Amino acid sequence: MAKPKRGTKELSDGDTASPQRATKEVSYGEASSRLEEILQNIEEGQVDIDALSALVKEAADLVTLCRQKIHAAEIQVQTITEQLEREAPVTTDADDDEDDEDDE
């Protein structure tokens, strides 16, 4: 018997009906979960061959989205870290020595 055509159904459900539009609106976690779902369906052979190319395209779009989000997060973290370093008080060795003497 033929396996269920879950891939076609899932592609047409909810916010994944238009992969390009939907991937711009989903969070990293949602994109990652959808990628896992697509991969699992393909590995289990639950995707109709006619829906396979659409799912592969959706997966590629989701991978691109995830990479963009990771890159944006890296830039944000770097910017914040640089800002914190600029705002941090500058200490000298003399300041450190005074702190050590107080501890004794």
TrEMBL record:
Q: Name one GO molecular function term.
A: exodeoxyribonuclease VII activity
What EC identifiers does the entry list? 3.1.11.6
Which keywords label this protein?
A: Cytoplasm, Exonuclease, Hydrolase, Nuclease
Annotated Acidic residues bias: 93-104
EC class of this enzyme?
A: hydrolase
Keyword Hydrolase present in the record's keywords: the answer is: yes
According to the record, the residues making up region (Disordered) are: 1-31, 82-104
Q: Which family does it belong to?
A: Belongs to the XseB family.
Q: What is this protein called?
A: Exodeoxyribonuclease VII small subunit
